[in-house]
Structure formats: C-alpha cells, structure tokens
C-alpha cells in the first residue's frame, strides 16, 4: 500500500511513501513500550524543558510547516502559520502547567494520609484526521508526553509529510525517539494495534463510523478511549442580536478551514423576524472571501482536501434541494472531480432532508427558521451531534441561560466557537466523549490511583511495676 501526498490545488501527487508492514509497526511499538519504563520516571522539569524546546522549533519552522499543510490538504499559508502558533502555545501551556495539573490531591479520610496520585499509563495510540494536521496531534501529544506517557501517531494517509515533520520536531527538541513516533500505516492495522496489550489507550479525532469502530475494538480489549467526532454546530441568532456582527462572524465561522472543521458553524438558526436581513448580510460576507492558491498570501480559502470530498458535498446539496431545500447562494464545484468548492447557502431546510440531519463538511451554510428563542433551542438540540454551538443576543445574561440549554460540549455567547489550551474540548451524543485540552485533557490518560496510609497504632504505655 502506498501513502500519498496529493496536492488538491494542482491535482498532482507530491510524494509517495511505502506503508509500514506489521513487522515494522510492531517493532516501533516494542520500542515505545520499552521507552515508557524510563520516560515515566523523568521529572516534570525534564519534560518541560523539551516541550518548551518543541514550541520554539514549531515557531522557527512555522513557514515550512504551513507550506506542507498547503500542499498536502489545501490550507492557505496564512491559516497554516496561525495553526502552528496555536500548537506552540499548547506545548508551552502543558510545559508550564502539567506538574500542577497532575499533583497529588489530598483527600481527608480517617487515614493518617490519603491522596489521589495521577500516574502515566503507557503507550497511547492517536488516530488523527487531515483537517488540522498539526493542531489535532499536538493537543494529544503535548499533554500525553508531559504526563509521562509515550505516543504513537497514525495520521490520515493524505498528510504523511506533516506527520513526519511533527515527529522530527519532537525528536529535535530532545524527546527520546521512541517516545513519539509516526506510523505510516493504513487503517487496516489500527485494530491490530489496539488489540496489542502494549497499547494502553486510544484517542481518535475523525468520523462517526471510524470512532464507532475504534471504540468497539477498544471496548473488547477493555481500553480507555477519547473520541472527538463530527459536529453540526448550531449558530443561534436571536431577534435582539447585533445583526451585523452576527452575520460577519457567521460567514467566518462557516469558512473555517474552507468549511472543513468539526466546530465550524453549520446550522444557522435565526428568528423569523430577522431571517431575511441576516441571510442577505451573511451572503455578502461569504461572497467577499477570496479563493485561490493556498501558497498565495492573499488567499482566504483553498480547495477541499480531496476532490472526492467535494463530490460528496455536492451530492448532499443536490439531494437536499430535491427534498425541498432552496439555494440562497449558488456556489459549489465548477465541475465534478475538482476540489475547489465555493460557499453556498441553503434555506427552507426541514426534517427529512440530508441538510437537516447530516454534517456538511465544507462551506455550505444551512439556514433554519425559528419562531422564538425556545424554538431555536429545540432546533439546535434536534441533532444527533453535540460538539459546539453559539448564541447571539445583546442580553448576555439571557444568552448564558440559553447556552446552558444547548446540548453541546462547548457553547459560546456572542463569539465564534474555538478551541484553546485552557478550555476543555469535546462533545456529547454522536460527537463523542472524553475531553482534550485544559486540566481535564491531561487527566484522561493517567491512572487516578488512590493511596491510603493507615494511622500508626501507638503501643499502650506499660504500667510501672512497683
């Protein structure tokens, strides 16, 4: 099996790599397992020094890494540089806070001394997607390595150069080579890895079917998993919202990574009285986005990562229109088999249409009409997904109250949904379970061990014998 770097803008294969055999994969796993016994004994200061160095290297190689993302999955270099800076911030964050997050927690009991210790568990396998080729990996790797675990990365097969570049950064930063390795393997070897006793846990960011398969295999093997899956985030606009700000942010939120983001806003739920005006404003903002060569500094969105992804998105749109949806903003592919997909808006979206129930992983904005705020919450929650969402209103207190009613892992009031090292990230329902980032993320893959030290029994004082 060959693993290819395919440039979606030029349509050319940049590089080909031979996939690892099981024999080679097993050899890397054995090295990682052995490395864990030593790495787990290192101090937080020792790990932090290397993690800070990794952050420095990310910043030094920022342009080179942004170039790799542009040619492998079509991300504009401006966005690529921002992604690398975010990765560096995450490395610094865990270097600075891991020791505090994993400090022993004193528990008051009848014992002389009782506490919870947070201890590393071993090899963590990460199955990662192509849409944020560095950020998705770093938000697993930085906390895992700082906790004393070791990581094996099975990246998406279309971003092998990104995967190898990140491996090199960790190695150049001074991490022992076996503590972080990239496995150039197909999905056919993932189950075999999970079934190996030396792999202690799995984290996956990807599609719902991939998550279900990994969770089923890990469940049979009694292994911990964290899953971050699809999303169809609700962007709720109430009648009292700052309409200009909401519409401008709505366009930006739909166009994150050319629309290829789990937390990109996808369902725009708007109160009836402002619906027409909102759609007109959002349309104008979407039309202002500049497509082009991802290597051009002026490009604001590039092609989708692969032509087949654009073909599938086109089919979702066409089926939805046949089912009654209306095209408010024409766009999409210029012809089948091409990767560039211009933004679209669909209105009159109703239950039973693909646009109502499915995630559209590309720049298609789905408009839903709400009678009032309660109806907006009903529509937001009428989805099998629950990753993120936002509420737009001039009444921040009301926005906060409504945010509590949205079934999602993160809800932002008057702001675009985003991930940051300080805040937990993850979903509910079919969007997955477990959390990445913050103190919760680093505690997902540790043994939360209870330690109890009994009180010493004092020997009775011997009576003096007269």
Automatic annotation (TrEMBL):
InterPro entries: Ald_DH/histidinol_DH, Ald_DH_C, Ald_DH_N, Aldehyde_DH_dom, ALDH_GabD1-like, GABD/Sad-like. Belongs to the aldehyde dehydrogenase family. CDD domains: ALDH_SSADH1_GabD1 (cd07100). The keyword NADP applies. This is Succinate-semialdehyde dehydrogenase / glutarate-semialdehyde dehydrogenase. Gene3D superfamilies: Aldehyde Dehydrogenase, Chain A, domain 1, Aldehyde Dehydrogenase, Chain A, domain 2. GO terms for molecular function: aldehyde dehydrogenase [NAD(P)+] activity; succinate-semialdehyde dehydrogenase (NAD+) activity. Keywords: NADP, Oxidoreductase. Residues 3-451 form the Aldehyde dehydrogenase domain. It comes from Hymenobacter mucosus.
């Amino acid at each position: 099996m060959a693993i290819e770097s395919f440039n979606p803008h030029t349509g050319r294969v940049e590089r080909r790599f031979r996939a690892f055999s099981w024999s080679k994969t097993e050899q890397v796993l054995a090295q990682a397992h052995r490395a864990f016994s030593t790495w787990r004994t290192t101090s937080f200061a020792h790990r932090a020094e290397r993690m800070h160095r990794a952050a420095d290297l990310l910043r030094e190689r920022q342009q080179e890494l942004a170039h790799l993302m542009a040619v492998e999955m079509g991300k504009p270099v401006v966005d690529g540089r921002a992604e690398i800076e975010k990765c560096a911030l995450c490395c610094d964050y865990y270097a600075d806070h891991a020791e505090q997050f994993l400090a022993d927690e004193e528990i008051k009991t009848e014992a002389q001394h009782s506490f919870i210790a947070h201890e590393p568990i071993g090899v963590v396998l990460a199955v990662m997607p192509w849409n944020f080729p560095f950020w998705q990996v770093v938000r697993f790797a930085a906390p895992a390595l700082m906790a004393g675990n070791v990581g094996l990365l099975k990246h998406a097969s279309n971003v092998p150069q990104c995967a190898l570049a990140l491996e090199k950064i960790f190695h150049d930063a001074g991490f022992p080579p076996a503590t972080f390795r990239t496995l150039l393997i197909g999905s056919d070897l993932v189950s075999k890895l999970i079934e190996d006793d030396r792999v202690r846990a799995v984290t996956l960011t990807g599609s719902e079917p991939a998550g279900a398969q990994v969770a089923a295999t890990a469940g049979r093997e009694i292994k911990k998993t964290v899953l971050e899956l699809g999303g169809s985030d609700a962007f709720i606009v109430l009648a009292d919202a700052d309409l200009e700000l909401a519409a401008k942010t709505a366009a930006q939120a739909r166009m994150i990574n050319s629309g290829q983001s789990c937390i990109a806003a996808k369902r725009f739920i708007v109160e009836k009285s402002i619906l027409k005006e909102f759609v007109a404003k959002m349309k104008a903002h979407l039309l202002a986005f500049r497509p082009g060569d991802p290597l051009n500094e002026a490009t604001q969105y590039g092609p989708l990562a692969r032509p087949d992804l654009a073909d599938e998105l086109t089919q979702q749109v066409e089926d939805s229109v046949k089912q009654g949806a209306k095209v408010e903003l024409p766009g999409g592919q210029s012809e089948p088999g091409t990767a560039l997909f211009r933004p679209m808006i669909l209105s009159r979206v109703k239950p039973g249409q693909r646009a109502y129930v499915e995630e559209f992983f590309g720049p298609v904005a789905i408009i839903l009409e709400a009678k009032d705020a309660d109806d907006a919450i009903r529509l937001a929650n009428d989805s099998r997904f629950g990753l993120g969402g936002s509420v737009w209103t001039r009444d921040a207190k009301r926005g906060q109250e409504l945010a509590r009613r949205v079934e999602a892992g993160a809800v932002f009031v008057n702001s675009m949904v985003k991930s940051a090292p300080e805040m937990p990230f993850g979903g509910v329902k079919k969007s997955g379970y477990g959390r990445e980032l913050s103190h919760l993320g680093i505690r997902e893959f540790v043994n939360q061990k209870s330690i109890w030290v009994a009180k010493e029994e004092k020997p009775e004082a011997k009576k003096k014998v007269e």
